[in-house]
Protein 1
Amino acid sequence: MRRLAALVSLLLLPLLLPTPAQAAATPLQVYGAWHCGDDACIWGNVRSTTDFDAKNHWLIDRGDGRPSVNVVVLSFVHPVKLLHKTTDAQTLDGVPRGMTADIVNYFAGRGIRVMLSIGGITYTTAWNSALAENAAQFGRNAAEVAQRLGVGIEIDYEENSKPDLVGLQAFIDAYRSVLPYDPSGANPAARLTIDLAAGDRWLIDIGRKATADWLRTDTPVLDYANAMVPARQPSSSDAIANWQEHLDGKPTYSPPIPPLAPAKFTGAFYIAEGNKVRAECADFTASLQKSTGSFVQTAAPKGAGLTPGMLGYMFWAAERPSTKGVTTTPPNSCEGGVGGGATAYAIPIPMPALRQS
């Protein structure tokens, strides 16, 4: 009988022990799309809002009148043209002609934050040239455009080999001299972000500098980073592994990359890639934003930050990101995927003041 009692006690022991606490899910705050216009990210033509709406209505209406996203990043501004305030066939005073106040208001009037992205992989050499020529004036010009249009600015400087970090620091310092960091997020023009690689093994020098000096929770300079899409759509496990690299840092690198606070970055997926419509665009139930949602909402700090959970998701890219392949225009609009995620995750619109720790 004693042996039977002991055996029963052993069998019941797991039921009697306290269950480890599960990390509480932190609501997503950033849920947005990069937008390439109708000419593969050039934005060279002025468009009527009627034409624009016909091809992009899903962004402002997920099917029930509510927007599918809370931020749109118009991509891309040419760095040298912005520095020189160039006016030519595709550019007006340094800004692509298609990035008009009407397009900004199309989104902002529905509670969607708007940003302009400077650079992209095509304009890497132009970033180098603008920084080398006059980084501070480049930063001031970016701040002037942000104020004039009521938008934020994204730094998309994709120099993997010996980036000009001194120049980039001067650009950021100049921008912040005009528009100081605003933890409330109330001033759209004060929002200044940066794009990093999907993980810590590309854009290493930029990632190290941004994590160590600009994305700290105690002395923030930039609002947050976007961990960009990798070369092709990842699996759920590969996406999580990439993001975990940012959380962990790279202590074995020389010099090391410090850990990044979960509250200081988003993850990203393709919605338009190749010749097929992605579930991330069309079907939330089968999407990566659904399968990775638990991780993104509960990712634990690993030496930086205090609160769990990444900021949210970004999607590459609305309308026509390349001259070939699928677009997100009807019948391929993304209410079912991106819009479905906005509903499932109760994405706040407009974007609230972001977590700071």
Protein 2
Amino acid sequence: MMHHSHYLDKKSVAYLSEALTSHYFKNPDFTEIVVVCIGTNLYTGDSLGPMVGSRMLERLEGHRHVHIYGTWDKPVHALNLQKTLAHIAQKHSRAYIIAVDACLGQYFKIGTLQVVEEPLQPGVSLGKQLPPIGHVHIKGIINNHGPLNHKVLEHTSLTFVQDMSAVVSRILVKASQDIIPGLVPQQASSMDQASDSLSSSS
């Protein structure tokens, strides 16, 4: 299922954060939240993810329930994606993972934010084959899809992407705050795993 709203719509933060929260509570069996913000700081059109990650870090750095990968200083992109996902799988084995990325789309959809209830397939518009990410993802349509996608990414307005990243980060912070009370306590999770181990050995 997909939920969408234009980033300038004043109801977009409430509507899309609620979509993320509702998706989580369909299967509330996670101990923490991991947000993976995909992109690079080399092209303005592909910098939405790192900008969102940096904005979230300003609000949530050090929060024990929310972990952010992909910022302006430490972006997550095609070259380090698999290594990052392996690290997350090892360190955050029971995390609810939200992926964030920019994408290209039809001209009249530019500025639209989409919450999609399935893993993100990064790099599709550029023909890249990268592993899927997340239980759910949010993406922003930053420019028109066409035959010169790399050029489009280079010539996307930085101010536009910055403004969109501010809205996306507010959506994610709001959703995280609403999800945190419904997370499974870490201690209870450890006890459940110990119980499962005893059951399988008896």
Protein 3
Amino acid sequence: MQNPAAASAASDFADLPATASHGPLRIEYRWVNEAAGDAPLAVFLHEGLGSLAMWRDWPQSLCEQLGMRGLVYSRPGYGRSTPRAHDVKWPVDFMTAQARDILPALLDALNIDMRQRQRMWLVGHSDGGSIALLYAALYPEALAGAVAIAPHVFVEDISVQSIAQTKQLYETTDLRGKLSRYHTDVDSAFYGWNDIWLNPAFRQWTIAEELPAIRKPLLAVQGHDDHYGTMAQIETIAQRVPHARLVKLDACGHSPHRDAPRALNEAIAAFIVQQRQ
């Protein structure tokens, strides 16, 4: 298993200019499976407490199986990217801003042109899955397809309850110390995510209305034992995006790439290979 410190040491950084929605940002990123040369690109979007290093070696293994290149990065506030200032709260539409502004700016900074974007697959987990869905809806021609793993489409009671329990664990157990291995400013990363999800105003958040704009192939994956969301999440996707394909994994929680990596990889590979035919 890849050492987190080694993954961080191998990181590169991209500088994004300030815009109306954010100040200057320094984004930690890394290419994986570069031996694939000019193959299509897979962009990995991490979960709400994730980072580049927390993916460990899964992006590499998936890209090797697919014969694709990979781009893994830490979103602002996470990993070694620009931390969230402690007096700044994420807005209710923070995932939309990530999809609309941050991801396209990073692609621009890395010289990923429209030709490459039209062959690009997004692979997002949890909050990252929601961001992948939003990007696919906002830029329906600037990708080849998307894989949304345990995405959030609306807020469920089970999500809020589990996130509140995670806050208690963070403040009373060694969870903070474990996460500090992966984030330059662990409190910035944790409370940026935790505070917005526990904000009463966030209970009304939903991206269901945006989903019908998705035109490209879409795979949505959920574990039956996910304690952060129910099957209603991906079933809502299927209702709004009729061409979406659903995969429901047994003996799998919120992180299929850790809980059921073989089944997940096989599902993703079969789906993408079918789209290439």
